[in-house]
């Protein structure tokens, strides 16, 4: 029996949501470069869920639905307040989504209409959970979502409790677009496996968040920032990175299983990091990132992926390191829910085989003889 470790190269299902062909990422056939430059995140949500861009009235309606659904049940907010302050935000997010299912009387309704409604509700509530956690653990009261603000604007507002800076809002909006979907990545596959059992959407998204938490998936950008903070200054980049490479240590944020000539999302995040560096007049984190990029690509031939420049981008926005992956989840929940909808529409239980490599022809030994 032939084994594809990590399912590498295995085509497991058909999907109309996103594609990676010859290094080009598209959502519903639309190039990520064009969407990042021209669309807003709400348009991309609608595109992923419905297969087309919205009309103005449809976009307005979606924005109204998101604003109306953003508030958390008090029980979920009380839960967040009760957690130890050192709890990782991804663990809080995972548990929060599971708890949201308890407050939804239609949680077990897997009709397309009910699940689309859940997709909107989950997408609306994830930023509220992330922002509330950030404020609670810093001794601040959570900020209620603003009914007139857009998605990215509301997140920045709830996080910092003041009128959002337009540059920060634009950067968050672009970052959310870039992270919204990525074909059959680990967390999306996990969500589809759960969905294929005909479990509910809350269970599928809880599964996905638990998968995204891992450092080989969503958690990689946290590790990139940890490396930048370990280095601390531009003049230490050569010493630290060369030392890590000499010791065969993995430099997070480089290489990608499906991109051999570079991740198309990385250039957008690099440009965002550059712009924010200039705006804040603190170019250190951007310059360190560029130097690491040049060293790793020069010595290992590896190009940066989406995680690498997102670290310095989020840092410039005043976002703490352990919120990087929750922001990834805030974006990717749109893709996850789109895949859940697609899986329900054409479902088959996902049940691969394993090649057994253990001992054979064993006999039971009575306990007194062991």
From TrEMBL:
Protein origin, superkingdom: Bacteria
InterPro entries xrefs = 2-MeCitrate/Citrate_synth_II, Citrate_synth-like_lrg_a-sub, Citrate_synth-like_sm_a-sub, Citrate_synthase, Citrate_synthase_AS, Citrate_synthase_bac-typ, Citrate_synthase_sf
A Pfam match = Citrate_synt
- Which GO BP terms, alphabetically? carbohydrate metabolic process; tricarboxylic acid cycle
Keywords attached to this Swiss-Prot or TrEMBL record, sorted alphabetically, are: Transferase, Tricarboxylic acid cycle
Per the record, the pathway is: Carbohydrate metabolism; tricarboxylic acid cycle; isocitrate from oxaloacetate: step 1/2
* One GO location term (cellular component): cytosol
A GO molecular-function descriptor: citrate synthase activity
* Residue numbers annotated as active site: 256, 307
> What's the catalysed reaction?
oxaloacetate + acetyl-CoA + H2O = citrate + CoA + H(+)
Q: Which family does it belong to?
A: Belongs to the citrate synthase family.
* Protein name (database record): Citrate synthase
Q: Which organism is it from?
A: Kroppenstedtia pulmonis
């Amino acid at each position: 029996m032939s084994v594809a470790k990590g399912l590498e190269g295995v085509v497991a299902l058909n999907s109309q949501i996103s594609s990676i062909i010859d290094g080009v990422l598209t959502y519903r056939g639309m190039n990520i470069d064009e969407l990042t430059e021209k669309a807003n995140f709400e348009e991309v949500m609608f595109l992923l869920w419905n297969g087309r861009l919205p009309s103005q009235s449809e976009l307005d309606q979606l924005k109204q639905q998101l604003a109306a659904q953003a508030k958390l049940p008090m029980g979920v907010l009380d839960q967040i307040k009760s957690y130890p302050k050192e709890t990782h935000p991804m663990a809080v997010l995972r548990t929060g989504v599971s708890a949201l299912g308890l407050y939804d009387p239609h949680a077990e309704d897997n009709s397309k209409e009910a699940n689309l409604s859940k997709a909107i509700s989950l997408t609306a509530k994830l930023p509220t959970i992330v922002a509330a956690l950030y404020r609670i653990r810093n001794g601040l009261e959570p900020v209620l979502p603003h009914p007139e603000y857009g998605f990215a604007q509301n997140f920045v507002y709830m996080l910092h409790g003041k009128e959002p800076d337009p540059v920060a809002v634009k950067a968050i909006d672009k970052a959310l677009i870039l992270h919204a979907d990525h074909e059959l990545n680990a967390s999306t596959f996990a969500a589809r496996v759960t969905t294929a059992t005909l479990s509910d959407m809350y269970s599928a998204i809880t599964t996905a968040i638990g998968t995204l938490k891992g450092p080989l998936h969503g958690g990689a950008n946290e590790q990139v920032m940890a490396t930048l903070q370990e280095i601390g200054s531009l003049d230490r980049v050569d010493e630290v990175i060369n030392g890590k490479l000499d010791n065969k240590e993995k430099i997070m944020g480089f290489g990608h299983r499906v991109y051999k000539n570079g991740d198309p999302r990385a250039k957008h995040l690099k440009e965002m990091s550059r712009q924010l560096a200039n705006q804040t007049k603190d170019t250190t984190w951007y310059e360190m990132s560029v130097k690491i990029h040049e060293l790793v690509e020069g010595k290992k031939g590896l190009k940066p992926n989406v995680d690498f420049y997102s670290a310095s981008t989020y840092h410039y926005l005043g976002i703490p390191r352990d919120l990087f992956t929750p922001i990834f989840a805030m974006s990717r929940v749109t893709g996850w829910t789109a895949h859940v909808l697609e899986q329900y529409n054409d479902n088959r239980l996902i049940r691969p085989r394993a090649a057994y490599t253990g001992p054979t022809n064993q006999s039971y030994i009575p306990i007194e003889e062991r």
